[in-house]
Fold this sequence. Notes:
With 269 residues, this protein is an alpha+beta fold. Helix content is 22%, strand content 28%.
Amino acid sequence: xxxxxxxxxxxxxxxxxxxxxxxxxxxxxxxxxxxxxxxxxxxxxxxxxxxxxxxxxxxxxxxxxxxxxxxxxxxxxxxxxxxxxxxxxxxxxxxxxxxxxxxxxxxxxxxxxxxxxxxxxxxxxxxxxxxxxxxxxxxxxxxxxxxxxxxxxxxxxxxxxxxxxxxxxxxxxxxxxxxxxxxxxxxxxxxxxxxxxxxxxxxxxxxxxxxxxxxxxxxxxxxxxxxxxxxxxxxxxxxxxxxxxxxxxxxxxxxxxxxxxxxxxxxxx
Length: 269
């Protein structure tokens, strides 16, 4: 789903769902019964070929094994091997990896650390269902952002508990205080990385203000039941909310991003 941060204080994120060549506005459908029917057809999100199974949220198997954006270092950026000359697509790495990244703290199901390109702020935070976020480092490459993230992972989580996030069981956190405490706790390790890569390559951000994010949710589920098009091709329910990349229905939740490339018929009462 495509997202846009609310412009006014307390205004909810707006969501649009790509259906074919159209963008469907979802916020006005809150409280209405919607139906999604999977046709059984999947096209690769990259090359467009038909595939019986989707890999890595929308790719056919050949693309999954060949594309740089499907390599294992995308999930573990500290393992980037661009410098070794073994990147699957060096030109892709030049554009997406050998560029400024940000390390951030977010509150989606509790405090967590993450990384993203500057162009993905605040999209990355909304995709994770974070209700608060703050950038804490600006670094020169994706690998360096991963190395900084690894340092902080020894102190805070690096993944979202999606069930807790969808239940709305998240308390407000003082992110600035957390940042300052983590800076102090990780001072020696960060200094070592700056000595190796240069202070200009790994710059702490001490003065950023936290961003608050609100979602269009009328009612959080007390029990999270997840839908899967591969097992249930027809999904119907009243739209109670949208958070992260999940549709929250009165019958269960659906991770839209998981089914990239699937042909879906969408109707709303």
